[in-house]
Structure formats: C-alpha cells, structure tokens
C-alpha cells in the first residue's frame, strides 16, 4: 500500500506528534540518520509487532520542532474484525517506547481516504525570536537569539506582502527538493511581541523547502534596515532564490498545527 | 569584606542572571559541586583577574531555574579612580566565559549600601505545570508534567489562603536549613491557565527552604481532591511540616524577578 487508501481489513490511525527537534536529523526517514519518523516507526513496530512506514503531513528539517505534526498508518484488524488497540490508549503505549523529546499527544481513527498530507488544507508554523542583547537560557533551544534592535512595524508591514496566492520560488531552496509547482497561498503572516519574545505566525496551504525560514530571515533583514519594506514584493517578483534574504536558523521554527476538515 | 558594604575604593556591580538549572547543583557555592555561583564567580575572575565571592539574592535548589536572579560583588577602582569596566559592557564580557545555559542579561552599578539579598523587599517565583495526559517535549525542562485533571477553581480558592503574614513552618524543610523566624508575608498566589499550561505566580517578602514547591504541591493535591479547599488554612495552623502536602518537583520552578526600591 502507498498509504493513500486503506483496505477494509485495515484500520487507519492518525497520530499527533510533538518533538524537540534539537537532536534529530529532521522528520523524514533517511539511511543512517536518527530521524523522528524512524523513532515513531520503531515504537509502532514494538507496540503492534508489525514493521511499517508512516505517512507524515510534511517534512521538517534538521533542528526544526513540532507541537502538532500529524502522521497516519494502517494496521490489520484482528481476526474477529475488532480494532487492535483503542486510539485513546495508543499514545501511552507508544510513548513507552519513545525518547522524552518525542511524544505522541493524541491518536484517532480516520476513514480510509484520510491522508495526513493530502487531506490537510493548511498548516501553521511559528517562528520564535529572542530579541534582546543577551539570550534567554530557558528558551535557547526554541528561539533564535537576535541581539540587534528590530523595527517591528516595518516587519509587520512587509509581512503583509507575503499574504496571497503567489509564486514563492524566490523563497525556496529548490536545489535540494525540486518541485514543478511553486505557487502557494499564504493566508497569515503576523508578528506578536511580548517583551523580548517575537512570535511569527505563518499559515498557508503548503510551504516550499525552507520557505518559512526564508520569509522570517528576510523580514528580520527588513527589521534592521538592510532592505526596504517594499523588498518582499520585489523579491517575489524576481522568482529567483538569489533575490531573497537570509534563511533564519532551524531551531527557531516549530510546526504548530495542521488544518483538516472534519 | 562580608559584602554588606563596599569601601569608597571599590565599585559595587549588580548582575541579573538567567539560567537553566537542569545541569546544576543549585545556585549556592558548594565543595565539589557544579553550581551557578561557581560558574559566575569563575567568569568574573577571568574578566577582572580577581578571585572573589558574589552575594546572591537567594539560594535556588538543584534543578530550579531563574530568569532574574540578582547578585552583587565589589571590584577595586582603577588607580585613577575610574570604573574598571562600564556596566553596559559587563554582560557581554562575562557571557564569553559562561556556558550557554547561564547568561548575564543586565549589569548595573549600585550604591555601597545596596545588597542583592537584604535590599530586596520581595521576590516573584513562577511554577509551570503541563496539565495534559502527555508531556510537551518543548517545555519538558521547565514544566512539571501532571497528567491527571485538576480542579483549577478549587486550587485558586485554596491559594488565597496563602496570602498574608503567617508562620509558614508547615511549608518549609527546616531540617536542611534551620531558621529561627518562620514568619513570612505572601502577597500573591495566583494561577493562570492557557490551554494545558498552568502558571502559578507566587510573590512574597521571602521564602523558606522548599516553601514555594510545598505550596504548589499542596494546591495540586487539592486540585485532585486529595485534600479539601480548607486544607491550606489547617495546614498553616498546625505549624508542622508533616501537616503539609507534597513538594512539587524542582524543574517546574523559576525565580522570575526580585523587587527592589530605586
């Protein structure tokens, strides 16, 4: 099975997964690398005694975190047609076999046409910056320390230009993951400020490789006056990666939640 | 000098220190233990080339964190009477010699009668609980994971009984640090709820050893119905450690800020 549809002899589970990505080579399974997917699949194998591949809603890069990563997988029904493990008992069962920096926080049963990636109509990422001359040790693994002062008003104005359905080619690393269609819709790009903590909330129907981090890095460069507020618009128009600003570091980014219809 | 008053040939610096206490045996200098005080003193020695003792506003236990720990120390003035290092340059100079889980976030010059401990009229501690069946890996070093559901209303009502000037003997570990006077004034004990995150904000003029953690542990036991709401009042009246509830774990506690007059 390629994970797009389960047979009637199988049950489709969907997991919500939180992780601190600091120690991992990202979400996606890779040869000889310690990834989140590898750890979750290994826990599932221990619980169900079946080796399998799970289907995540998206990749996250090395060092990126998640509060609400979603993934699905299929398990054969028991001989009598019953569910092997009720979903409400699954998180506890899996967490026994997972390291403390990966937690299954919720599990549910989904119809056979549900797909963690293809059924999602949007995702929310949050990017955290500690904007103070000295870092906050209590948030050092989840925030980017940026000591220079930032013009938040300019960044908010520039951020509005990311909203819409556009070609985001300039904000993607297409060398690593070539894709044909680089049109994406961003429906939110806002910045919350609470003391030195800046929270970028970015929502869209999909994101190209390193797109979120390119957006944040560019806004920060606007915040220090390296680029004018109009830079986002002109960078998008160029449709060339060289046009955009820097890529913000991975450890400030968290996949916050994924949107599905019920 | 015992740190209570600096001579006119010295300058008194005061530091604001943030730390992730996970890897440390608390604040206080101890023989053969890696403490925060030891690390900060060692950085000061490297910067000023003078070995000395610093004076903290309070002890924090093994595993307890701080956002705004305060400490002072005296450094001789230069031959021409000038200040060896301007305070605004001191955090960066010290942070070069500190591990990433300890940061000096601010430094100032204080009058010779200022004392980090004796000049403080109050302190604010925050205690964080992740109240959800499964822990949040992104907050696992700073929150106590408590999976059972809690009656927050009961806890808030009971928490009010901690406010006032009273003998807190029942909520202190006096075996470890005997003190004569166990009367303290608590002026705030509130609980904020934001999804699964509970934040206890506790302010007082001073705290006995493990007092904050005893207060939180007791409120949690009231929250699961182990004790009635009236328990705080009766425990305080007994003036005996055996009377009070459990001690909440250290890693949920952060010394948030210290109050001084200007």
Summarize the structure.
The structure is a homodimer of 262-residue chains. Chain A is α+β, with helices and mostly antiparallel strands. The first copy, chain A, is built from five helices and ten strands.
Task: Please explain how this structure is put together.
2 copies of one chain form a homodimer. The first copy, chain A, is α+β, with helices and mostly antiparallel strands and 262 residues long. Chain A folds into 2 domains: 10-110, 2-Layer Sandwich (Alpha-Beta Plaits), CATH 3.30.70.580; 122-260, Pseudouridine synthase I, catalytic domain, C-terminal subdomain (Alpha-Beta Plaits). Chain A is built from 5 helices and 10 strands; from the N terminus they run E-H-E-E-H-E-E-E-H-E-E-E-H-H-E. The first copy, chain A, has helices at residues 36-48, 90-95, 152-160, 211-223, 231-238, and strands spanning 10-19, 55-56, 65-76, 102-110, 120-130, 144-145, 164-167, 183-194, 197-204, 253-260. In chain A, strands 1, 2, 3, 4, 5, 6, 7, 8, 9 and 10 form a 10-stranded mixed sheet that branches. In chain A, helix 3 crosses helix 4. The first copy, chain A, is elongated, with a radius of gyration of 20 Å. At the A-B interface, helix 2 and strand 4 of A face helix 2 and strand 4 of B.
